[in-house]
Write a structure and sequence with these properties.
By secondary structure, the chain is mainly alpha-helical. 38% of the residues are buried.
Length: 380
C-alpha cells in the first residue's frame, strides 16, 4: 500500500492506481472495511489523474526544501544550502509534470552554484550553472549560438531574469577560473537578457573586467564609465560609487605604467565614498573594497592607508566568518577563502614595517623593502 502512495506522490498516478487494484482485495480482508473504503477512494482519485488528500506531491516537497535553502542562503550557511538543494532535485521522466520538474531543478542548481561559489569551489559552481541552463534547454549550449530553450521558450520577465542570472553567474565563475572564452560567450548571452539598469550595470562591469584582464585598459575604462553612467541615470548610488572606485583603480594602474609611480588620492577618495554607501545600505560585505584598495595602495607612497585598509579587510572578513551558522565543511571553506585577505595584510604590514612606518616593528638591513622576501621584520 505504501508503495502506491509513494508512486502517486511522484506523479505516477496510473501505476499507483494499478497497484491499488491489485492490493485492494487482500487489503479488504486484512484490514477493516472503513480503511479499505478510504484506500479505494484514494485509488479512484489516482485513476482520475488526481492526488488524494493523503498525498503530498514531490514537487511541493521540493519547493518546501528550496524555501529552506533560500533561508540558509540568507544566513550565509552555504554548507547547509548544499545539503538541502541536493535533496530537492527531482528525477526526470518520473510522471511529474516535466515543465515543473525542469524549473525546480534549475532553481536548485542555481542555489547550488551560488553556494559553491561562496565556498570557493569555482569548478563545481561552473558545472552547476551549466546544469541549471541544461534543465531549461533542449540541447547543451555550444558557447556560440543562443540557447535552444525547452518547450515554448522562456519569454516572461521572470524567465528572462532567471536566464540572465545563469549566464551572469557562469561568466563570473569562468572569470575567476581564467576561462576567458567561456566568460566572454556567457557575457554576450547575458547582455541579451539584461532587462534592468542593475543587470546592464553588472554586465558592463564584467565586460570591463575581461577587457582589463586582456590588457585593453582603454576598452575597460570605456565600459566602466558606461556602467557608472547607467547607475547614475538609475539613481543607484552604491553602484555608481563602486564604478567610480573601479575607474580610479584602472586610471592609477595606467598612470603607474606611464610614470612608474602610482597616485593614491583618487583611490582613497572613491574607496571611502563606496564604503559610505555600503554602510548607508547596511551591506556588510565591503571587505572587497578594503582589499582591492590596499592591494593597489601598497605600491604607492600611501603605505599607512594601505595598512589601515588591509587591517580593516581582515577584521571585516573575520566578523563575517564568525557570524556564519554553517556546517563544519562550510566553516572550513570560509576560512580557506579568507587566506588571500590575510596574505594581503601580511604583505602590507611587512612593507610598512620595512619602511619604518610602524613604530612597533623594525626591519634592519633591508635592501628591498617592497620585495616582500628581502627583509626580516623584528618586533620591538
Amino acid at each position: 500500500m505504501t508503495r502506491s502512495y509513494a508512486l502517486a506522490d511522484l506523479g505516477r498516478l496510473d501505476e499507483a492506481y494499478r497497484q491499488a487494484q491489485l492490493i485492494l482485495p487482500v487489503y479488504a480482508r486484512v484490514f477493516d472495511e472503513e480503511a479499505a473504503r478510504d484506500y479505494a477512494a484514494d485509488a479512484e482519485n489516482w485513476g482520475q489523474g488526481q492526488l488524494s488528500q493523503f498525498n503530498t506531491a514531490a514537487t511541493d516537497l521540493a519547493r518546501q526544501t528550496l524555501e529552506q535553502a533560500y533561508e540558509r542562503m540568507e544566513a550565509r550557511a552555504y554548507g547547509r544550502v548544499l545539503t538541502l538543494v541536493s535533496t530537492a532535485l527531482l528525477p526526470m521522466n518520473s510522471g511529474l509534470p516535466e515543465s515543473e520538474v525542469r524549473v525546480i531543478n534549475a532553481e536548485a542548481e542555481i542555489l547550488m552554484a551560488r553556494a559553491l561559489g561562496q565556498l570557493g569551489r569555482n569548478a563545481q559552481a561552473g558545472n552547476a550553472w551549466l546544469r541549471a541552463l541544461g534543465y531549461l534547454t533542449e540541447t547543451p549550449w555550444n558557447l556560440t549560438d543562443p540557447p535552444d530553450f525547452w518547450g515554448q521558450g522562456l519569454t516572461s520577465d521572470g524567465d528572462r531574469a532567471v536566464i540572465f542570472d545563469i549566464f551572469e553567474g557562469l561568466a563570473d565563475t569562468a572569470g575567476l577560473m581564467g576561462l576567458s572564452d567561456i566568460e566572454q560567450a556567457a557575457l554576450v548571452q547575458a547582455s541579451d537578457y539584461a532587462a534592468t539598469p542593475r543587470a546592464r550595470f553588472s554586465v558592463l562591469v564584467r565586460r570591463a573586467r575581461l577587457a582589463l584582464a586582456q590588457d585593453d585598459p582603454e576598452q575597460g575604462l570605456a565600459l566602466l564609465r558606461a556602467s557608472r553612467d547607467v547607475a547614475a541615470a538609475a539613481g543607484a548610488d552604491l553602484d555608481r560609487t563602486v564604478a567610480a572606485f573601479y575607474i580610479a583603480l584602472t586610471e592609477a594602474r595606467q598612470s603607474e605604467r606611464e610614470t612608474g609611480e602610482l597616485p593614491p588620492d583618487r583611490i582613497v577618495i572613491t574607496a571611502e565614498a563606496a564604503l559610505a554607501e555600503y554602510r548607508a545600505n547596511f551591506i556588510a560585505e565591503e571587505d572587497f573594497i578594503y582589499s582591492s584598495a590596499a592591494r593597489m595602495l601598497v605600491r604607492s607612497e600611501a603605505l599607512s592607508t594601505a595598512l589601515d585598509f588591509a587591517r580593516r579587510a581582515v577584521t571585516t572578513m573575520q566578523a563575517r566568518v564568525a557570524a556564519r551558522n554553517d556546517t563544519g565543511f562550510g566553516q572550513v571553506q570560509a576560512r580557506r577563502d579568507a587566506r588571500s585577505t590575510v596574505e594581503l595584510f601580511l604583505l602590507t604590514s611587512h612593507t610598512a614595517a620595512s619602511e619604518e612606518l610602524d613604530p612597533r616593528l623594525a626591519a634592519p638591513d633591508c635592501e628591498d623593502a617592497r620585495g616582500f622576501m628581502g627583509c626580516t621584520v623584528v618586533a620591538r
